[in-house]
Specification:
21% strand; 6 strands; globular; alpha+beta
């Protein structure tokens, strides 16, 4: 009689609920996650939410906007900060980054980022989403 190999561990495909349950409820981080993802899902099909083993990635056909990591961080994609003609040039991007900085996303390298729990404040989250709306309109043309 031959021994059977051990079954492979079951892995779940990452999704919204996997992300939600992996984030510690530190100062409203789950509430912030839900608010950001609900916004992105409400913009479908213009925006898409793709889940990986490490993050939820919010993107347009024109490229990534931002990501929410399982470690509890929001990071604006460098692709969002790439010039795209007259309406999204270096000056506009500089103002965009300054606006992000004003709501607490600090640039490390060329990627503004902030702890997820900082978006538990609905006003801050709404300001961030308004900026992402502007960027998504530019990326989708």
């Amino acid at each position: 009689m031959t021994a059977r190999p051990a079954p492979l561990p079951v892995t779940l495909k990452p999704d919204k609920w996997t992300l939600m349950t992996s984030i510690r409820n530190v100062d409203g981080a789950r509430r912030a996650t839900e608010g950001l993802l609900d916004w992105a899902e409400s913009k479908h099909p213009r925006l898409d939410v793709r889940y990986t083993q490490s993050a939820a990635i919010i993107e347009t056909l024109g490229g990534r906007l931002f990501r929410i990591s399982y470690e509890g961080e929001v990071r604006v994609s460098s692709h969002t900060l790439t010039p795209r003609g007259d309406s999204w040039d270096g000056g506009r991007i500089k103002r965009f980054v300054q606006d992000l900085d004003e709501i607490g996303l600090k640039s490390e390298g060329n990627r503004p980022r902030a702890p997820l729990e900082s978006f538990a404040d609905e006003r801050k989250r709404e300001k961030f989403l308004a900026l992402m709306e502007q960027a998504s309109e530019t990326l989708t043309g």
